[in-house]
UniProtKB/TrEMBL annotation:
Entry keyword NAD: no
SMART domains in the record: AAA
GO terms, molecular function: ATP binding; heme binding; oxygen binding; sequence-specific DNA binding
Name of the protein in its database record: Nitrogen fixation protein VnfA
Keywords from the UniProt entry: ATP-binding, DNA-binding, Nucleotide-binding, Transcription, Transcription regulation
C-alpha cells in the first residue's frame, strides 16, 4: 500500500474518531459477532441475490458464491478482530477488490453493507440482554468501524473502477448499465402531491445535461433523487460518482475531487485521478455542496464554466465532460447573501432546482414508507401509524427508517409496536395526546425539546446524538445553533 494511502487513512481514522476504547469494545463483541457470522454472511448474499442483474454477474454458480462467502467471512473477521492499522488496510483493500471485480459494484456494496450493519446491530441487541444504554457505546464503536470500512471500500472501488475503465469491453459497460438501471434499492417511495411533482421534475430535467440543484432537509432522499436523475439522463450508461463535501476535511476533498500529482504533498508518492476524471462522460453528485470551502468553490466554478480542471500539484489543465448534480440542506440564497457561498457558482448550479419536502409536510407517505422499510412478514396496526404521523421527524425519512429498524430489533415477535419506537417519538405522541392542536408554530419548540432530550440521553456526546436523531454531525451543529442550545 502506498504511504500516501496510509497517511490518508490515518486522517480518515482521526476524522471518524476511532480510538482505543472503541477498539476494546469491538474486541469484546468480536466473539459474538463471529459466532453469528454465518447469519450475517447469508444475509449479505441474499441482499445481493435479490437483484436479478446480480445473478447475471455471479455466473460461477454456488462454487463462486462459496468462494465469495469465504472472502466475506475473512472481511468480518478483519472488521471485528484486527487492529485498525496498515495490515488491516492492505488486507481490507484486497477483500474489497475481490468483491468489486466481480461486478458487485458500489451500488450493491452499499446496499449490502447497510444490510450488514442492520444485521450486526440486531445480532448484538438480541444476544446481549442489556439495557440499550449499556449497549449503545459498543454499537457506536461498531458503527464507527463500519464507517471507516465503507470509506475504504469506496476507495477500493474507485481504484478498481479506474483500472477496469481502461480495459473494459463494451459488453461490460452495457452490463454495468443494466446493473444500475435494474437497481431496486434506489426506489423512491411516496405518492403525495409534493412527491409527484418531484417525479415530474425528474422526468423533465433528467434527460438534459444541465446542472441540477436538489434542496431539502437532511434525510429527505436527495441522494435517491440524484440517482434517479442520472438514470433518466442521456449518460445513464456512464458512471455516476457521488461525493459528500461534509464527510471529508478540505484538503482531502480537494485531492478527492480534482486528483493529485505525485509529490503534490507529503505522502503523495503516486499520482491519482480525481472524481471528476472518474465521472468523465457521466454524472458527479456533489452532496452537501453548501459545505464547500471558498477555494474549492472557485475550482468547481471553473469546471462548470469550461470543463477545465487541474490536479493538485499539476501545471497541466485537462478537460472533462461531467454533468453536475448538487444537493444541499442549506438555504444557498441566504448563504450567498451572507457571503459564505459564491454568487456566480450559485447561479451556475441553480439552473434547475428540485425541492424535496420534509416528511412532516407529507405525512400521507408514511404508511407507504413503513411498508417499504419493514421486513417481509412484519405487521403493524393503525395506532403505530397514528404515532408516526403525529411526530415532527427532524431527521426525515432517514430517521423514520432508523426508528423502524429499532422497533424491529427490540421486538419479541414480528409485530411493530409503538413501545419499541425511540422514546422521544413515544413521548411526543403522549404529549400531543395531552395537548392536541399544536400548529406549525409549535414545531420548532417540539424539535428543540427533542434535540435537548436526545443530547441529554446521549450524555452530550454529539456523534451519538446525531446518530440517534438520524442526522449528520454538521446538521446537529446547525440545529444546536438554530435553537440556541449549549451542548455543554
Ligand atoms: N422517498 C423515499 N423513499 C424511500 N427511501 C427513502 C426516501 N427518502 C429517503 N429514503 C431513505 O432515507 C435514507 C436517507 O436518504 P438520502 O441519503 O437520499 O437523504 P439525503 O437527503 O441525501 O440526506 P443527507 O442530506 O443527510 O445526505 C436513505 O436510506 C434512503 O434510501
Amino acid at each position: 500500500m502506498p504511504p500516501d494511502s496510509v497517511a490518508k487513512h490515518q486522517e480518515i481514522q482521526d476524522y471518524v474518531g476511532w480510538n482505543a476504547e472503541d477498539a476494546r469494545r469491538i474486541h469484546i463483541a468480536a466473539d459474538l459477532i463471529l459466532a453469528g457470522a454465518e447469519q450475517v454472511v447469508d444475509d449479505f448474499y441474499s441482499e445481493i441475490k435479490r437483484h436479478d442483474a446480480a445473478r447475471g454477474v455471479i455466473t460461477g454458480g454456488e462454487e463462486q458464491i462459496d468462494r465469495l462467502k469465504s472472502t466475506l467471512r475473512q472481511w468480518l473477521r478483519l472488521l471485528v478482530t484486527g487492529p485498525y492499522d496498515r495490515d488491516y488496510l492492505v488486507a481490507r483493500l484486497n477483500v474489497g477488490r475481490r468483491h468489486v471485480t466481480i461486478g458487485l459494484d458500489q451500488v450493491y456494496a452499499n446496499a449490502a453493507l447497510a444490510r450488514m450493519r442492520w444485521r450486526l446491530t440486531r445480532l448484538l441487541g438480541a444476544t446481549w440482554n442489556l439495557d440499550p444504554k449499556e449497549l449503545a457505546p459498543t454499537l457506536e464503536a461498531l458503527h464507527k468501524r463500519l464507517d471507516l470500512d465503507s470509506i475504504i471500500i469506496q476507495d477500493a472501488y474507485q481504484a478498481e473502477y479506474l483500472a477496469q475503465q481502461q480495459s473494459l469491453s463494451k459488453e461490460n459497460l452495457q452490463l454495468r448499465t443494466a446493473l444500475d438501471r435494474s437497481q431496486p434499492a434506489w426506489e423512491i417511495v411516496g405518492e403525495s402531491t409534493a412527491m409527484k411533482s418531484v417525479y415530474r421534475l425528474i422526468e423533465r430535467a433528467g434527460p438534459t445535461d444541465k446542472p441540477i440543484l436538489i434542496q431539502g432537509e437532511s434525510g429527505t432522499g436527495k441522494e435517491l433523487v440524484a440517482r434517479a436523475l442520472h438514470r433518466a439522463s442521456l449518460a445513464a450508461d456512464k458512471p455516476l460518482v457521488a461525493v459528500n463535501c461534509a464527510a471529508l476535511p478540505e484538503t482531502l476533498l480537494e485531492s478527492e475531487l480534482f486528483g493529485h500529482e505525485k509529490g503534490a504533498f507529503t505522502g503523495a508518492v503516486v499520482s491519482k485521478p480525481g472524481l471528476f476524471e472518474v465521472a468523465d462522460g457521466g454524472t458527479l453528485f456533489i452532496d452537501e455542496i453548501g459545505e464547500l470551502e471558498g477555494g474549492l468553490q472557485a475550482k468547481l466554478l471553473r469546471v462548470l464554466e469550461d470543463g477545465m480542471l487541474r490536479r493538485v500539484g499539476s501545471i497541466r489543465e485537462q478537460q472533462v465532460n461531467v454533468r453536475i448534480i448538487a444537493a444541499t440542506n442549506r438555504d444557498l440564497a441566504k448563504e450567498v447573501e451572507q457571503g459564505r457561498f459564491r454568487e456566480d457558482l450559485y447561479y451556475r448550479i441553480n439552473v434547475l432546482r428540485i425541492h424535496l419536502p420534509p416528511l412532516r409536510e407529507r405525512f400521507g407517505d408514511i404508511p407507504l414508507l413503513v411498508e417499504h422499510f419493514a421486513e417481509d412478514g412484519w405487521t403493524w396496526d393503525q395506532r403505530l401509524l397514528q404515532v408516526l404521523e403525529g411526530y415532527g421527524w427532524p431527521g426525515n425519512v432517514r430517521q423514520l427508517a432508523n426508528a423502524l429498524d429499532r422497533a424491529m430489533i427490540l421486538s419479541d415477535d414480528d409485530c411493530l409496536q409503538v413501545e419499541n419506537l425511540p422514546p422521544e417519538i413515544v413521548r411526543s405522541s403522549q404529549q400531543s395526546a395531552v395537548s392536541p392542536g399544536g400548529g406549525d408554530g409549535d414545531l420548532d419548540s417540539v424539535n428543540r425539546r427533542h434535540v435537548c432530550e436526545t443530547l441529554a440521553r446521549c450524555d452530550n456526546n454529539k456523534t451519538r446524538t446525531a446518530r440517534a436523531l438520524g442526522v449528520s454531525r454538521r446538521t446537529l451543529y446547525r440545529l444546536l445553533e438554530k435553537y440556541g442550545i449549549d451542548p455543554q
